Amino acid sequence: MTDTPAKPVLLTGAAGGLGRQLAPALAARGWKLVLTDLVPFPDALPEGARFVRADLADGPAILRLAEGCGTVLHFGGVSTEHPFEQVVDANIRGLYHIYEAARRERARVVFASSNHAVGFHERAEPLDDDCQLLPDSYYGLSKVYGEMMGRMYWFKHGVETVAVRIGSSFPRPVDARMLSTWLSYADLIRLMERATLSPATGCCVIWGASANARSFWRQDARGSLGGAPQDSADPFTAELADKRTQAVFTERYQGGGYTDIDRTRPTPVQGRLFE
Ligand code: NAI
Ligand code: 15L
Q1: Separation CA 58–CA 17 (nearest Å)
Q2: CB atoms within 10 A of CB 255
Q3: pLDDT at position 179, please?
């Protein structure tokens, strides 16, 4: 595997929490980056990077941005639960623009999917990458749509996708659930390197989590991309193991609090899809 991609890499959501970690780290490795976001990039522009402000809902702008790029690290969009209408433009329409651009450029898409695509699985149930999709929110549903769009563009157009079902990527875990879901920034950056530089990925799903002993997730394609997570939430266990809420849905399901937002069902489902 080489160290730098042959072509520039487009990073959407560059001004967001994860984009601001990825942009300087990947630029420091000598990568040529095209950064974009709806809002201005708040930091000093890393060497070798240029920033263009654009809305993912603007198809022609996204096509122009992707020109000459070999990979799209797609981190832009609505990143938490919102009313349906607010999710649609960035996460549904915007994703279509990203995939059309990737098709035109013969580029690979590394898609920041989310654990909320499968958030209604019980915490006690270990999941593999081919588990049932059980979104816990309109946001999670948009990630399911993204993963399915990747499949369609792979079978129909040969566009490669690495869909990374990210758990919780923050500076450190902050509650008991994150002892299972935490992804350190350093592991995120390593994962993006491998997803970009691997010679062939096809269309695969991987779990975006550090090496957490309490992980909800098992089998995926990470092995074939090479490398493994090096960090772990385990050192935070004594501090966080009892940091739980009293909310029944939140504590029962992998998606945590997202399963409780706007909920009208009074009690959890016993079993999987059927009671
Ligand atoms: P964030 O909200 O900090 O960053 C998202 C960025 O997307 C923001 O800078 C925002 O301005 C931009 N954006 C929103 N709508 C846009 C539009 N219409 N056009 C262009 N840009 C737009 O979120 P964060 O935490 O950095 O997450 C990045 C990606 O990773 C998101 O797709 C999120 O769903 C995903 N993810 C993040 C996780 C985490 O723990 N941080 C967990 C699972 C998934
Ligand atoms: C996500 O998908 C969100 O982007 C992030 O803000 C967290 O809520 C994370 O999931 C999580 O589940 O902890």
Answers
A1: 22
A2: 29
A3: 98
Cα 78 to middle of ligand 1, angstroms: 6
The verdict on the CB of residue 79 being under 6 Å from ligand 1 is yes
Tell me: pLDDT of 275 over 50.
no
Residue with tokens 């960090």: 231
Q: Which of 138, 139, 145, 253 is catalytic?
A: 139
State pTM to two decimals.
0.97
Instruction: Decide: 37 in ligand 1 pocket, CB within 6 A.
Output: yes
36 near 52, Cβ under 8 Å? yes
Q: Is the CB of 168 under 6 A from ligand 1?
A: yes
224 confidence band (pLDDT: 50, 70, 90): confident
Report CA(39)–ligand 1 centroid distance (Å): 12
104's enclosing H/E stretch is helix 94-105
The pLDDT of residue 75: 99
